[in-house]
């Protein structure tokens, strides 16, 4: 399957907003550039009209130039290798590609080959989720990662001592990538499932549920998360903006969850709720 690369020239203040908008249109990988970012989408999911409508909504606030080109799926490695920089998160977690050296000071080391999947740690939401994971006891816990992308958060759960990990993703090629990354990091036992919230119905309860998706999916799927969260368990959410937090918090409280804390980075939020 081929992908389209849409390269947008836009100022940094609006880059995150447009990233979120494009994610809603089916774009599922983003790479920062010097003057904006590139977004990637499966060719059959691309709609020129939808893209134009999104850009038109912000026309009074920002000027955006863009180009579109087709790239073959097998060429994605070349794209991300050119742009992928290793990260050090929370003073403890190294996130790197296989061709990078492991930092000596890293307590936890995660190797990610992202292909076309979201979740290298470069996006604020992934970093925020990992920072929140570091605050929770995962030792011997049962953990669920919804919308797992590359599998980075599920792998982080393994690094922190979780013994049973389930990861769920709606795209088959992303499931394949998450499984590859799990095995690469020594966590082949992670149960990576294809599907959405319906795949967890009836599961044994989880101690920790991670969901880094987007506001609308979180609001819709929250009851499914709550149904499989142990009493006293934690729900970590991200993929939304500070202005969305009251809506997310209200939905959680309607389901009997208690707000704990949240972190913010460039207007993106990751929040912790407790059952």
TrEMBL record:
One of its GO terms (molecular function) is protein-lysine N-methyltransferase activity. InterPro entries: Ribosomal_L11_MeTrfase_PrmA (IPR050078), Ribosomal_PrmA_MeTrfase (IPR004498), SAM-dependent_MTases_sf (IPR029063). One of its GO terms (biological process) is methylation. Its EC number is 2.1.1.-. It is found in: Cytoplasm. Its main location: cytoplasm. One of its GO terms (cellular component) is cytoplasm. It comes from the Bacteria. Keywords: Cytoplasm, Methyltransferase, Ribonucleoprotein, Ribosomal protein, S-adenosyl-L-methionine, Transferase. It is an enzyme of class 2 (transferase). It holds the Pfam family PrmA. It catalyses: L-lysyl-[protein] + 3 S-adenosyl-L-methionine = N(6),N(6),N(6)-trimethyl-L-lysyl-[protein] + 3 S-adenosyl-L-homocysteine + 3 H(+). Methylates ribosomal protein L11. Belongs to the methyltransferase superfamily. PrmA family. NCBIfam families: PRK00517.2-2 (NF001785). This is Ribosomal protein L11 methyltransferase. The lineage of its organism: Bacteria, Pseudomonadati, Bacteroidota, Cytophagia, Cytophagales.
